[in-house]
Specification:
CATH topology: Rossmann fold
Number of strands: 6
CATH superfamily: Glycogen Phosphorylase B
Largest sheet: 6 strands, parallel
Order of helices and strands: HHHHEHEHEHEHEHEHH
CATH class: Alpha Beta
Radius of gyration: 17 Å
Distance between the termini: 39 Å
Amino acid sequence: MQLQLGHVLAGLAVRRRKPQRQSFVDRLLRLRIAQADQCRFAWLWRLAGEDFERYPRTFAADCERLAAEGVDDYFVLSPGGGWRSKCWPPERYGGLHRELARRTGLRGVVSYAPGERDLAEAVRRAAGAPEPAVVDIEVAQLMALVRRARFLVAGDSGPLHLAGAFGTPVIGLYGPTPPERNGPFNEADVVVRNARPEETTFHRGAEYSPSMLSVTVEQVVAAVERRLGTLA
């Protein structure tokens, strides 16, 4: 299930701003695949092979579970991204969490994909006090998590597009991949990118890229404030 959803979410990254180059999402919506009222991503759930009839009940149960764990009023940091070269280092996410927690008074939650637990724990250690929550969740719970979040900060990844589909404010961190093609679908969302044109690439690099390393915590905090209007 998680692997299937990952493939579908990867497809959502294909976004074209030029009218003659229509996005993957636009093409699907024109085909009227999205039908359900409760979730603008109902078609994604079906494409991922899940029985959509179970979704409303599953979503409500997952919201209750997250609230019971103290995850109630929060923002989400999603440090993963498949390729290391399009990820932001965990130390930066940790510094970001400290500043956002201080300025917003909210609790941060670190989400991660299978095999990324060490990455999430590295963010938690780097954040110090107050520590973000690191929750081990399945796909349905991820949907509940991002839908209820105040905002999400992530690189070019599935959770970023999933949050955008639910209308959650998104701050996208981009380096080698172009936001004109892979960026958030909602025009109100904010992208942070310092990459030069010649640094744009879809090569799956195994190390942090210079363009991602050039993104500063201060830039991201400013982007969050710009997207929300205030951090108070």
